[in-house]
Amino acid sequence: MALTSRRAGRRRLRRFTRRDLVVLGVLLGIPVLLDLVIVWGPTLASIGLSFTSWDGLGDIHWVGTDNYKNLFTNYPPFWPAVRHNVLWLLFLGLIATPFGLLLAVLIDRGVRFSRFYQSTIYLPVVLSLAVVGFIAQLILGTDQGVVNTILGHRENPIDWLGDADLNIWMMMIAASWRHTGYVMILYLAGLKSVDPALKEAAAIDGANARQTFFRVVFPTLRPVNVIVGVITVIEALRAFDIVYAVNKGRNGLELLSVLITDNIIGEASRIGFGSAIAVVLLIVSLGFIVTFLVQELRGARDR
Amino acid sequence: MAQSSLKGLGASGDVIGHRMSRRSLLRGAAVGAGAVTLPALLTACGDGPGGNKNEVTVGSNASDSVPKKAFAAAFAAYEKESGKKVKVNTKDHNDFQENINRYLQGTPDDVFMWFAGYRMQYFAEKGLLTDISDVWQGYSGFSDALKSQSTHAGKQYFVPYYYYPWAVFHRKSFFASKGYQQPKTWDEFIALAKQMSKDGTPVAFCDKDGWPAMGTFDYINMRLNGYDFHKSLMAGEESWTDSKVKKVFDTWRELMPYYQKGALGRTWEEAGQSLQQRKTGMAVFGMPHPGSQFPENERDDIDFFAFPEIDPQYGQDAVEAPIDGFLVARKSKNMAGAKNLLKWLGKPKAEDVYLQYDPNNVAVNTGADTSQYSALQKKSAQLVAGAKQISQFMDRDTRPDFASTVMIQAIQEFIGNPKDVDGLCNKIERQKKTIFSQAVS
């Protein structure tokens, strides 16, 4: 007994030689360093800068919470931007994502030409959102857009992209065109992996198609649901390129990401103020991330 | 998971096939990670040598094909004359503008293209430009107005190269066929706009890009309140809630019913094309804008008139004519070469070469050869020469952060909803106060 325990102790001592420690230190150190430099550094710098006034050239002045006060009370595009981000999230979450699921279910049931539909609907996913924005302009432009050319109201054209009440919806539809295909492919993969025996058992128990789907199939898709949920939230919060391609995210297309860019990029930038907006976006994102992690960890413990 | 094991194997390929130990795998991964990060670190540190003293680099924002070709011709003429080399680094016009801060603080070219007036003075104030007053002493043929646009705190930092006036552009033949007369006063202008709208060819209007409508604001303000008020309003010294400013918006609103509908969804290119296709009657534009949208054989048909008089006290004195030109960055590596190039660029001949290839601008130097000018260029030159004051453009006359984060949005809001002028002016004034309270230096 004593002998083995001593040997075990010696082995524990010997488990990591100096060289091992160095190698491990380097291997762990590099990712940790990269993480600190690439992720934590900029994040903390943004938070710090959000309490200052800096134009990117001269001295940095500490201004306390002035930027935030200004942001909430004296920056007209801010609240519309928050509203648009929320709207974007709801639209993707409540319309585009369920629609993608619907398409996946239809294709999974084996409608005719399902391979064709599958590839056509997935095709937009390979396009960047900026490109989708350009396509939207070709279709919805006031004078030379396809839709207005077909409608032919020369005198009083519908200003799809210029009307501040209309353009955000057009953008969300365009973004959904891409999002739906993405969601569909993810669900399709999930549905393929659902054990047919489950469905058969449900049918034998007398469940109809709808009950089978909502009570049996959908719950088994939980891992996919989580991924789709995360993707939807990310897409909604990072939406930027499509509105920037259309009109630089102004006049009804304000989003938090655009306001950050507007204030930080360019000559004579308001870096402190832009950072304050970035911090707001960070807090919103953290809200979702924390909720998601809590759910996940709880779910893992239950299982 | 798959990725990390792939990395290990890939980095130490010789291990495959032998019995792989944990340690060799780790070592392989470390070598792999080093191979990925090291070169990046090395290039970050390296900063090439100062370069050839016979070569001047020029940072260019002239990314459109016409000016790009014209600049190439001008630099070729310089190379031929001086026996020196000019290396042009062209960047996309908007990218250049958005990155100018980092560009000037990083490794700028020896000479770079930029704008006169406030946009130049801002960087001069920041100490990012080289004083070229010595070069200026050798110049002749630049007016006092030009010199003041090139000057900051008594020193010159800018070599003007060309400019182009803003005015109301239209097709000559279209006016003739409809029997329209070029208006002189605001009342005549509104009457003409009304007639055009009735005839189904309204006034072209666009502001999707955010800046084209600024020209109309500038002109109405200068006609109504005079150049001095406009200048101090742009400098943040006047209040935007002043009744004078509200009157600008009120006056502008008189024109709104006769504009093309849907201005906020229309680019300036589309508006220019509608003018070319005779779908619209006239438009407030800068000279290159209609020019670039008309086919070459129809360019003779472009005509313009000065923005109409509103208050006789100010008449048509002020002309909006943005000036483009060259500057030397503080961090320029080849200062002697840069100044030598500038010396040449300030000569009338240098402008002649350029304008031969770009007929949408006008030379700034009075010594430049105007015999090759088109009728439109001649008229533009006259318009600018007859101006008592020259303004640049809203986004060049005021702080860029104010122009881009407040005024673009405000003017677009006004176009979308022209009724709430009081609310709009209050919003602008509040934001102006916060922005201008942050000192420039």
Automatic annotation (TrEMBL), chain A:
Gene Ontology BP annotations: transmembrane transport
Segments forming domain ABC transmembrane type-1: 82-294
Stored SUPFAM superfamilies: MetI-like (SSF161098)
Membrane topology: Multi-pass membrane protein
Listed Gene3D superfamilies: MetI-like
A matching Pfam family: BPD_transp_1
Sequence intervals crossing the membrane: 21-41, 86-107, 119-140, 168-189, 271-294
Location(s), subcellular: Cell membrane
UniProt keyword annotation of Thylakoid present: no
GO cellular component terms given for this protein: plasma membrane
Domain of life: Bacteria
Keyword Transmembrane listed: yes
Keywords for this protein: Cell membrane, Membrane, Transmembrane, Transmembrane helix, Transport
Family named by the database record: Belongs to the binding-protein-dependent transport system permease family.
Identification of the protein by name: ABC transporter permease
